């Protein structure tokens, strides 16, 4: 599909300049950008992944992870191919960095599938698995379709997008989990082939316009120092201390073969984060309590054991015990 001229510019003698993400790739005839899915054909930019679905499933919404958005519900999850970053530790590299088989799903078909999934307690659609912002033209078509019938749209994203394209679609996004991979520019350059500052800008903007939760994968020796975790959590708290932070344990994947994150590192990070933030969770490692508790009276609002969820003292979006707002933007089951 030819992309909107709003997201690229034609240059002299054939190249185009893609403006979707901060790479701002200068793409020669017949070549693609870093994402591998936006290609110059005859001086025009085409999105080769429009409607192409590599993965689809009905997941617990906690798996995104989203803990403060419709807790206990499920969500239809779909993914395409391609990514704006090239992380050495990519957990889904088969679809983000390679060329898996795909199936074309027209916007109308996805809408039908989402409405069918609603019968199984799905609240809408999560665009996930690979980088959904590289599915930009497809999102621009399907997000309003879902909204028009009362379905929720969720982006699970690395947040690597330029401001103008993001602003054009944010009204159709109901929740996001944004991957804050590190709080160091050097890490983004060496491990992800990207930059930290645009991701920070995305987070700051999106928190003002939709529900946001953050995830940070802690990798031994790369982004797990006390100093970096402290700086990251202070920065998040400066935006809003209620923003949920999911600290995730690393396991070897793709090109990175470092040993898994040890428990003592996750415990240290959890302790630091809890000094600054009200909603901190640990993923990819058993044995951590991931209950949501009221920041005022400490009553358990939502109890979790794995993906087993029980609503305790959450009344709408507030604590039933003391009445404090609990940063839950949507009703629980």
Detailed description of the structure:
The structure is a single chain. The protein is an alpha/beta fold. It folds into three domains: 5-47, no CATH class; 52-288, TIM Barrel; 291-333, no CATH class. It is 25% helix and 25% strand. The protein contains eight helices and 20 strands. It has helices spanning 93-96, 107-117, 136-148, 163-169, 185-192, 196-207, 226-240, 263-276; strands spanning 8-10, 16-18, 26-27, 38-41, 44-47, 52-53, 55-60, 74-79, 103-104, 122-127, 152-157, 175-179, 211-218, 245-249, 280-283, 292-293, 300-305, 308-311, 314-315, 318-319. An eight-stranded mixed β-sheet has the order 7-8-10-11-12-13-14-15. The protein has a three-stranded antiparallel β-sheet with strand order 1-2-3, with no helix packed on it. The chain has a three-stranded antiparallel β-sheet with strand order 16-17-18, with no helix packed on it. α2 (107-117) packs across α3 and α7 runs parallel beside α8. The two termini are 39 Å apart. The mean pLDDT is 95.
Question: Whole-Å distance between the termini?
Answer: 39 Å
Shape: globular
CATH superfamily of the largest domain: Aldolase class I
Q: In the CATH hierarchy, what is the architecture of the largest domain at level 2? A: Alpha-Beta Barrel
Helix amount: 25-40%
Mean pLDDT: 95
Beta content comes to 15-25%
Q: How large, in whole angstroms, is the Cα Rg?
A: 20 Å
In the residues, how many domains can be counted?
3
User: Which series of helices and strands comes N to C?
Assistant: EEEEEEEEHEHEHEHEHHEHEHEEEEEE
Strand order of the largest sheet: 7-8-10-11-12-13-14-15
- CATH fold-level label of the largest domain: TIM Barrel
The CATH class name of the largest domain reads Alpha Beta
Alpha-beta content class: alpha/beta
């Amino acid at each position: 599909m030819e992309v909107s001229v709003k997201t690229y510019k034609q240059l002299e003698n054939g190249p185009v300049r893609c403006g979707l993400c901060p790479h701002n790739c200068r793409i020669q005839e017949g070549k693609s950008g870093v994402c591998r899915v936006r290609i110059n054909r005859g001086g025009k930019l085409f999105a080769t992944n429009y409607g192409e679905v590599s993965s689809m499933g009905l997941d617990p919404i906690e798996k995104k992870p989203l803990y403060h958005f419709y807790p206990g519900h499920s969500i239809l999850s779909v993914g395409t191919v391609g990514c704006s970053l090239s992380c050495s530790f990519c957990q889904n590299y088969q679809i983000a960095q390679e060329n898996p088989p795909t199936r074309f799903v027209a916007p109308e078909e996805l809408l039908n599938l989402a409405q069918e999934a609603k019968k199984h307690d799905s609240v809408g659609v999560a665009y996930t698995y690979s980088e959904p912002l590289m599915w930009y033209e497809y999102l621009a078509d399907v997000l309003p379709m879902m909204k028009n019938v009362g379905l929720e749209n969720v982006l699970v994203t690395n947040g690597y997008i330029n401001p103008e394209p993001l602003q054009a679609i944010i009204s159709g996004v109901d929740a996001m989990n944004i991957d804050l991979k590190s709080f160091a520019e050097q890490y983004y350059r060496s491990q992800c082939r990207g930059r930290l500052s645009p991701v920070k800008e995305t987070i700051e903007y999106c928190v003002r316009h939709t529900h946001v939760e953050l995830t940070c994968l802690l990798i031994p020796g790369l982004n797990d120092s006390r100093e970096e975790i402290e700086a990251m959590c202070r920065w998040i708290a400066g935006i809003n201390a209620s923003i949920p932070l999911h600290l995730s344990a690393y396991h070897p994947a793709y090109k990175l073969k470092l040993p898994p994150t040890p428990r003592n590192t996750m415990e240290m990070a959890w302790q630091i984060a809890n000094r600054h933030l009200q909603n901190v969770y640990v993923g990819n490692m058993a044995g951590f309590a991931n209950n949501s508790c009221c920041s005022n009276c400490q009553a358990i609002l939502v109890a979790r054991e794995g993906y087993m969820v029980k609503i305790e003292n959450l009344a709408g979006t507030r604590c039933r015990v003391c009445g404090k707002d609990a940063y839950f933007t949507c009703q629980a089951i």
